[in-house]
Amino acid sequence: MATTGDTLGSGSENGPGKAWSADHSVDARYRFPWLGGPVYVRIILGRERRPDERAREHNAASIGRSLMNVLMFAMGACVIYTAAGAILLTFSSVLE
Question: pTM for this structure?
Fold first, then answer.
């Protein structure tokens, strides 16, 4: 797992070809090998610096997406617990 640097193009706020230099408390960038090519993952944590109006618009647009994420997580948990229960019953002495 190798970390990578991010270089922005001429439209960036840091100028043409300059490396990204944001002041985030956590700015982790990783590149993982994957089927069909590498996958790039970036994790950023820090203070919110967007204008209030832009943050409100983004939050309003992402309510449905957040609800779907919660539902998918709950469904995944149900599937995992059901499979674990079935395996436990199959290999335990409960069925004897």
Answer: 0.39
